[in-house]
Design goal:
Heavy metal transporter, alpha+beta, 18% strand, 3-stranded antiparallel β-sheet, 6-stranded antiparallel β-sheet, single chain
């Protein structure tokens, strides 16, 4: 046992504590309740929320979209269906045979989210329960299944629309490789419609204020794993990868600053 324990200790110290122990996850808090997603799921929740906001829809719509995708695909962009819908694909398990678009379109998360909200906009979803609104769009064989994701969906939608400042955090391992300010600027514009500027090769500045600023800041945190982000600063706070949560800091007024892993 001593040899095994010593070997494990040596392995952990050789590989590195962060890479062997850290469980990568993103959390959103409402009141005293914390909800958890993987970084991939959080990134997709951010895309869904940004799509709703870009279309001028309220946080309620984002909650419906997140709850629906959580039930249909676990918020992952899957390329297969099930026995009931063998041609179902994507975040919302939309079917080409049912007029949702081509398979290639459905597998594009931005297209899929826009197509979902296009259908949601055809009726008064704001006065409906989340599960009822989701079912009216999806026409699922399990109409009550969406309700179990309501708390999680509301928590992430509230953070990602900026209604709940500094409540979305991600715990991540150290970055591998370098980030690209050009990629962040492109993704931000495509998903939110908001323009940003490269402050340097590894820093992006987004001129936003108030609630919109928190929406963008928490969008950046939700995408930190994929974009190799090391910190996001806004409104007197900074989220950094080393600590995994928001802490007080000197920040640039009227700007979200996203710092990426550099060379």
């Amino acid at each position: 046992m001593g040899l095994i324990g010593g070997g494990l200790y040596a392995a952990v110290n050789f590989i590195g504590f962060d890479t062997t122990v850290v469980r990568e996850q993103c959390t959103a808090v409402v009141g005293s309740t914390q909800h958890t997603l993987s970084p991939e799921q959080a990134s997709n929740a951010a895309l869904i929320t940004a799509t709703a906001t870009k279309r001028g829809m309220p946080a309620r719509a984002a909650s419906i979209g997140i709850a629906t995708a959580m039930q249909e695909s676990k918020l992952t962009n899957i390329d297969y269906g099930d026995n009931a819908g063998p041609d179902s694909r994507g975040l919302f398990q939309q079917r080409s045979s049912m007029g949702w678009g081509t398979e290639e379109q459905i597998m594009n998360p931005r297209y899929a989210a826009n197509r979902f909200f296009q259908e949601l906009e055809t009726f008064d979803y704001t006065s409906m329960e989340i599960t009822a609104a989701a079912q009216k769009v999806q026409r699922s064989a399990y109409p009550l299944a969406y309700a179990k994701h309501e708390g999680l969906a509301k928590a992430f939608a509230s953070a990602l629309t900026g209604n709940s400042p500094s409540t979305l955090n991600c715990t991540l391992r150290p970055t591998e490789g370098v980030g690209s300010s050009a990629t962040v600027i492109k993704d931000l514009k495509a998903q939110t419609g908001i323009s940003a500027q490269a402050l340097s090769e590894d820093r992006v500045g987004v001129p936003v204020k108030g609630k919109q600023g928190w929406a963008i800041a928490q969008w950046a945190v939700a995408n930190a794993e994929a974009q190799r982000t090391v910190s996001v600063s806004y409104a007197g706070l900074v989220w950094n990868r080393a600590e995994g949560h928001w802490v007080p800091a000197a920040t640039t007024d009227g700007y979200v600053v996203i710092t990426l892993a550099g060379s």
